[in-house]
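Objective 1b of the project was to move from sequence-level analysis to a structural picture of ligand recognition. The entry below was assembled by the postdoctoral researcher (A.K.) and checked by the PI before modelling. It contains the amino acid sequence of the target and the SMILES of the bound compound, pyridoxal-5'-phosphate.
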Amino acid sequence: MESSYESFVKNTYPFPQAGLSLSEGQLCFQGIPLMDVVRRYGSPLKLTYLPLIADKIQAAQSFFNEAMFKEGYAGTYNYCYCLKSNFFVPVLQEVLKQGVGLETSSAFDVDLVFELLSRGLLSSDKPIIHNGYKTDAYLRKLIRLQELGVVKSYLILDSPEELHRFESLSPVGRQKSVRLGLRMATYEASGSPYYSSRLGFKPEDILPFFEKELAGKQHLRLEMLHFFVDSGIRDELHYWNEFNKALNLYIALKKKCPSLRALNIGGGFPIKHRLDFSYDFRQMTGKIVRAITAACRSASVSEPDIYTEFGSYTVGESGVAVFEVLEHKCQAKGEDWYILNNSLLNTLPDTWLMDEAFIVLPLNHWDRPPVRVYLGGLSCDQADYYRGGANGRGVFLPSWPVGQSEPLYLAFLHTAAYQDALGGYGGLQHCLIPSVQQIFVERGKRGAWEEVWVCPEQSMEQILPLLGGNLLNTRKRDISPQTRDR
Ligand SMILES: Cc1ncc(COP(=O)(O)O)c(C=O)c1O
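Corresponding predicted holo structure:
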């Protein structure tokens, strides 16, 4: 076993690496010494480094545009951000500064779009892709968006019923045509508990649906074919099977539907969940663009505009969650636990929902020897723990610094996608543990970083009224902690 955590990491993984390094024996994330952040704000905390969002968007744009240029591709590349992955305004501002479009998944997302439009953060000429189940409320809001002059709002139909309800909700005598997309249901990768996605049309139903319900109707402009492989854009047989199914369907549909002009390949670019992560974005993008070009040219069909809706890829790597280790417990031989000062179940729900692996590194004490530990959350729940992802047998961290003045702090890295949306931010959480403070940072003018927005930890004054306390018609006695302690 290595004598120090630092030599263990350096001998086991490529380290330092982009965004992760050591400075004076302490962890830096995107050049930010995280211990400085802890000294200023305490822990637990979540930090989001906003400039990385722009870097990611620009990188994807250049991968696609370079590949298209090489092929002499006739269509365009269009980046849309999957709103549900992170709704915080500093994140949205950073995304929208890049001039990209959005993807919505519910009627409630569209309320956020109204807000962004009214504040001038989103301009009405950007593409907005509308996925998800279309309730009447959702459809009414899409009609309203059109009335507001949002010219590239795409209603992606999941079923014929959605079209029928949209037609019945549309004002009588409506002249404007609506831009439509059809979502092709994909099959799930092996290991999934179900075989077919409930989202979208079965591939074999798409052409008959077009001919029966859309062909010849000027006001229903079918422009986009959409598909999304939930397991991600991977250079694997499963992905290419679904991709080719969609591409062949696009070509068959294009031959019957001249207004069709876009292929939306959804989200699914991966992010770093391991220190030895490797993925060649340029190569994968090149393969996608070449496959579309070759198939379209051999069928004498013009190449579609390509749309993507990256969520994790856009924001995931910009976030880090920091916790303090409160205690080291050894319950059985080889089963050491570090107890953290927050709930993993509440704050990083994918550790529990999907057994997701995140990179976990210490902020300090890199000179101590490594030990393998499980990480336990603060809630009383047995499930509130982390073992390093599915089949993980614990994570390596520095041994507990007995007698040292500075406690051990840990960072869960690349946590900015979906965790707050799924775990809920604010409101009531398991064991009434408050939502952690959120710190959004930019590149600083003088130093490495400066705060754009700091949202403090949720307080009990915010939590208690949510319990309906104001409905309890009882006289309040003074049992503040000072009174009780006396
Ligand atoms: C339709 C659709 N598009 C895009 C995304 C974003 O996927 P990712 O975060 O993997 O990029 C999702 C995620 O569930 C989705 O359902």
